[in-house]
Design a protein that fits this description.
Layout (H helix, E strand, L loop, with lengths): L4 E7 L3 E7 L3 H6 L2 E6 L13 E4 L9 E4 L4 E4 L3 E7 L2 H15 L5
Antiparallel strand pairs: 1-2, 1-7, 2-3, 3-6, 4-5
């Protein structure tokens, strides 16, 4: 289990969806709880909004999938059941920028 991997997660309030691991690699390796982003389980039928990023086959998914960057979930690693993919390096920068923009943090 590593940062930038996409796994299936049984979210307590949303049900089963792809989850993108964004926690620091040290946390992923050593702690039971990590941070993830929730992704849609349905095929994306629209462009990504200002707080979303579009993931696709280049990231190991079966189809275009919206990933929500404006809410970080803390989940137990034991809630992750199936590795689905790995976010491509180009998209990682876009995700970090989208998280920062979604949180309205100042640009440094």
């Amino acid at each position: 289990m590593n940062q930038w991997e996409i796994w299936t997660c049984a979210f307590p309030t949303a049900g089963s969806h792809p989850a993108l691991i964004i926690s620091n690699p040290e946390r992923v390796a050593n702690k039971p709880a990590i941070n993830v982003l929730l992704c849609s389980s349905q095929r994306a039928g629209r462009p990504a909004g200002p707080t979303e990023i579009l993931l696709d086959q280049a990231d190991g998914l079966d189809w275009e999938t919206l990933c929500k960057c404006d809410f970080l979930f803390a989940i137990e690693k034991s809630d992750l059941t199936q590795r689905r993919g790995l976010v491509c390096p180009e998209r990682r920068v876009q995700i970090v920028r989208r998280i920062i923009a979604s949180m309205a943090w100042p640009q440094f």
